[in-house]
Amino acid sequence: MCGIVGYIGYKDVKEILLNGLEKLEYRGYDSAGIAVRNEKGVHVFREKGRIADLRQTVDVNVQAVTGIGHTRWATHGVPSKDNAHPHQSTAGRFTLVHNGVIENYEQLKKEYLLDVPMKSDTDTEVIVQLVEIFANEGLDTEAAFRKTLQMLKGSYALALLDAEQEETIFVAKNKSPLLVGLGEGFNVVASDAMAMIQITDQFVELMDKEMVIVTKEKVTIKNLDGQEIQRAPYTAELDASDIEKGTYPHYMLKEIDEQPLVMRKIIQAYQNDQGKLTIDQGIIQALNEADRLYIVACGTSYHAGLVGKQFLEKVAKIPTEVHVASEFGYNMPLLSEKPLFIFISQSGETADSRAVLVKVKEMGCKALTITNVQGSTLSREADYTLLLHAGPEIAVASTKAYTAQIAVLSILAHATAESRGIKLEFDLIHELGIVANAMEVLCDTKAEFEQIARDYLASTRNCFFIGRALDYYVSLEGALKLKEISYIQAEGFAGGELKHGTIALIEEGTPVVALATQQDVNLSIRGNVKEVVARGANPCIISMKGLESEEDRFVIPAVHELLTPLAAVVPMQLIAYYAALHRSCDVDKPRNLAKSVTVE
Ligand code: M6R
């Protein structure tokens, strides 16, 4: 969701900004723009659509060493050139990019800007107009910016240029991610280290309600009272090659293929010198002190949480609830006496999850974040963090983060069980190794899944995924993958639930993907398949070695029954990938979606 870049230094800035924006494309956007400042003033280039479209509009003759750029994912106002950032104040003195949502923008408009003609439908324009109004009243830019920030309610990451102030970018942050990167003779601003990792790996984290004055020599962080804050930089552990596609046509395919490696990395990361799986003692103690765990997450991470609940209850024997973050605020369950919250988030920036984290911290609860991004907001604000070690996930459709989340949850449950003296019935390191091998086999069988996508999904309007027990959760994830990238109406159901309504939708030829990896319910799910076939469905049964039957379309290599989601999801991911490809969809950047959902 919206991305920001900025550069101030000695090189021509246009290409640096455009390259940086390309690295942020994965976050999702529908328009983009850059503003560059030189001795002649500020030059703005904006376009609806892709960065490639923006490139066409940028005047190559304009040279500048200072600039800001933005990818916009529309919230206020349709995706259009007028609503694209950067936005400029009426006199053109100030130019601004913004990520987030200003909740009181209507009120600010009424109070201060009644006479100011607005050029866009965005909440952002209010900010830049206010800065100009306060500057016209005699404040210097820093003071005008600070005064404006003090009035804003909501979330923002901001970068501001002043046409009258040479070589400075004014930056601010509240609830939306933003980093400042440090270089030799230059400094940068970015929503995500990935955008600037090609030119620096030294970054400074910004906290909420901070503003920063960035020149090419200096970075000065202040709070909104104007007091200076000292903060040391950190080294972003990101390899520039991690964020390249290499020979792959899409990031999603690369990330699906990386899953066996990620499983092995996770085993390594959580293994101690004695070869045992281990988790930080503080985290284990927090789980042991809790009388109930509350997993909070969105989308794919929520689906991973559903599987995690099974481990935490069956292996570690701790009652666990799983909640969709966006609903938690209104539908908060009656909490137990000693709750522990577990936030699962690939990005660590999801606003819905963060809103719950803020609320439960205010209530005095402890929280653990399981995330792929060290130093992300959810990680910083929780008491404890477990990392996924999945490497950057760039495709909007989450794949390797899902399997990494499940693997880390299994290790967490395993280590907690061990600390409680619970006798473990299987060797998790060995079983995760088997999973990694099974994933490899599945990734090597792509042609099979491409054919399934062709046979079942080439021209269908809809598709159902059914499963029981753990397979039900994988069905939910399979349906989410398919709908988000192929735009086929897809729903996941508990096999037994179909007859309570959804079976009415089954028509001649309706594809029904049925998962059969659970021994206890193997016969029941096959019974459900018979029910839909009797009504004309076109069934695609994906089973597991040892449970297979003649009618099955594909048989997954056997893995431990509790870990089946790790293997069973790979066919779901590949089928969705090929269905989207056959339909000529933009696999890595599906319409309307953002990778990092930083608005509630
Ligand atoms: O970064 P998060 O894990 O918190 O993101 C949560 C969801 O937005 C995310 O999983 C989304 O559902 C994916 N696009 C699914 O592929």
TrEMBL record:
<keyword id="KW-0032">Aminotransferase</keyword>
<comment type="subunit">
    <text>Homodimer.</text>
</comment>
<feature type="active site" description="For Fru-6P isomerization activity">
    <location>
        <position position="595"/>
    </location>
</feature>
<feature type="active site" description="Nucleophile; for GATase activity">
    <location>
        <position position="2"/>
    </location>
</feature>
<dbReference type="InterPro" id="IPR035490">
    <property type="entry name" value="GlmS/FrlB_SIS"/>
</dbReference>
<keyword id="KW-0963">Cytoplasm</keyword>
<comment type="function">
    <text>Catalyzes the first step in hexosamine metabolism, converting fructose-6P into glucosamine-6P using glutamine as a nitrogen source.</text>
</comment>
<keyword id="KW-0315">Glutamine amidotransferase</keyword>
<dbReference type="InterPro" id="IPR035466">
    <property type="entry name" value="GlmS/AgaS_SIS"/>
</dbReference>
<keyword id="KW-0808">Transferase</keyword>
<dbReference type="GO" id="GO:0004360">
    <property type="term" value="F:glutamine-fructose-6-phosphate transaminase (isomerizing) activity"/>
</dbReference>
<dbReference type="Pfam" id="PF01380">
    <property type="entry name" value="SIS"/>
</dbReference>
<feature type="domain" description="SIS">
    <location>
        <begin position="283"/>
        <end position="422"/>
    </location>
</feature>
<dbReference type="InterPro" id="IPR001347">
    <property type="entry name" value="SIS_dom"/>
</dbReference>
<feature type="domain" description="SIS">
    <location>
        <begin position="452"/>
        <end position="590"/>
    </location>
</feature>
<dbReference type="InterPro" id="IPR017932">
    <property type="entry name" value="GATase_2_dom"/>
</dbReference>
<dbReference type="InterPro" id="IPR029055">
    <property type="entry name" value="Ntn_hydrolases_N"/>
</dbReference>
<dbReference type="InterPro" id="IPR046348">
    <property type="entry name" value="SIS_dom_sf"/>
</dbReference>
<dbReference type="InterPro" id="IPR047084">
    <property type="entry name" value="GFAT_N"/>
</dbReference>
<keyword id="KW-0677">Repeat</keyword>
<feature type="domain" description="Glutamine amidotransferase type-2">
    <location>
        <begin position="2"/>
        <end position="217"/>
    </location>
</feature>
<protein>
    <recommendedName>
        <fullName>Glutamine--fructose-6-phosphate aminotransferase [isomerizing]</fullName>
        <ecNumber>2.6.1.16</ecNumber>
    </recommendedName>
</protein>
<dbReference type="Pfam" id="PF13522">
    <property type="entry name" value="GATase_6"/>
</dbReference>
<dbReference type="InterPro" id="IPR005855">
    <property type="entry name" value="GFAT"/>
</dbReference>
